[in-house]
Amino acid sequence: MTTASTPLAHLPLGCRVADGAWEPLTRRQHPEPPHPYRSAFQRDRARIIHARAFRRLAGKTQVFTDRFSDHFRSRLTHTMEVAQIARTIAHALGLNEDLTEALALVHDIGHPPFGHAGEHALDKALRQHGLSFDHNLHALRIVEYFEQRYAGFRGLNLTLGVREGIVKHSHDYSAQEHPELAEYFLDRRPPLEAQLIDLADEIAYLTADLDDGMEAGILALNHVREHVRIFEHFYVAVQQRYPKADEKLVFNEALKSMLNALAGDLIEETLRRVSSAGITSLEEIRNAPERLAALSPEMESQRMEAKTYLYENLYRSEDLLRDQHDAAQIIQTLFDAWVADPRLIPPGHEMDIAEQGTARFVADYIAGMTDNFILKQYALWRRGN
Questions:
Q1: In whole angstroms, how far apart are CA 230 and each of 182, 256, 270, 306, 385?
Q2: How far apart are CA 187 and CA 20, in angstroms?
Q3: Which CATH superfamily includes the segment(s) 23-384?
Q4: Which residue of 204, 220, 256, 363 pairs with 81 in a disulfide if CB–CB is 3.0 to 4.6 A?
């Protein structure tokens, strides 16, 4: 079992503007003069935090809707946890922490209300019109088009490095299927800063969802211990160290140790892969045969075990499936109603509907809603029908 305490040498691979391979990633679609005391990625981070779409994450489901408790993670608090984990890993690897943090903060900005159930429902609704919904691509449209905060341009005018990371942090897109993404080096690997975001996301939600699942009373401690090896390993160790501690505190300590072990293993395995391949530049990272940010085979096996456990015992539990069914019904109903009669949408969007088509516009409109707002819209629709 690896830990995060192993001394690590810093890699000279973080974004350096003086490096010719990195310089294009600091460019913006609309040229702006450099800031006197902030880097390009620091400015991107601030623009993301101040975006309206970022603030709305506070009202969007992560796993549990607010009918369960006010204490559970929202999409926003989850994002903050991912950012903290990702920045820590980037620091340990000597990567660019500002780029990493900006990517972590923006990685979920394209999610619709009701968590993954909402995303699946929107995708299903759009496929009836020959379209699809992808939260990464929707996030790109948010930062390039929907956010309107500047007089000189539409969108946030983020750097190419951040926009590439939005597109590619979790998986690769085919250049043949997505010619509109040609500027994002689809035939090449993203920088390590982007590669580690999806794994930091996994680390954050595996531990957080065990925590929230226990708090909700859906998961049982003994059952978790029996089926999640990595958790049991640390739970036993904490019990031995604190034999008189309250069970909840032992649980919390074990979860923290589990998170540290996953993060430490990611750091060590990424370092091992980069070192073993003799990689010393961004160009070599881009040309690598596979992504270099990864967990070791043993830790990856334990990660998958924990993830499978959560799918079988939490995400597909009766309580959450009921919420997911209700969410899908609400989204499909409103989508169908607004596509059939766009006049039901508040005025002022006629040009957007004409440019994008009714189905795409309605999906974008729904995707921007918080849970509470769409529930209010559904209540209004029901009263009118």
A1: 41, 11, 20, 8, 52
A2: 20
A3: Hypothetical protein af1432 (1.10.3210.10)
A4: 204
